[in-house]
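quick one before i forget lol
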Amino acid sequence: MSRQAVRIAMIVLALLGLGIAAYTTYVHYAGIKPACTAGESCTKVQTSVYSELAGVPVALMGLIGYVAILGSLLVRETENTRFATLVLTLGGFGFSAYLTYRELFSIHAICEWCVTSAVIMTVLMLLSVWRFLRAEDKPPTTVDPAGATQSTSATVADSGY
């Protein structure tokens, strides 16, 4: 898969996660029951003591996290921005894992919105690790017909990489 394809896939996933987090944040502040095919499981999770951390809704933290991840993907790609995306997705994955643990062993209910977000964050984290480890900041070089090597940095810079 090309660098561009990975980046686009990650942007799409971040947008999906952003949509889920926006919906669950809305549900929290509106005080309504979330749409849920698993009966009252989502409501049980959304209204549990674990739905807030220090008075801040977990859904809002997810919303802010997805905005930060999306922001790191939309700026010009450098080693620093790839690293920022990596740190953000690792943090999001860790937090999602903690919340999934709480769903399973403390709340004893599974919220499909939360699971979907956790799956999205897991895939984002895996793609972010792969993207960070395989990336090179050196622009590719080409050989012109005369045999001279030249940098294609103008093309790379113009494409956002």
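fyi The CA atoms of residues 65 and 71 lie 10 Å apart.
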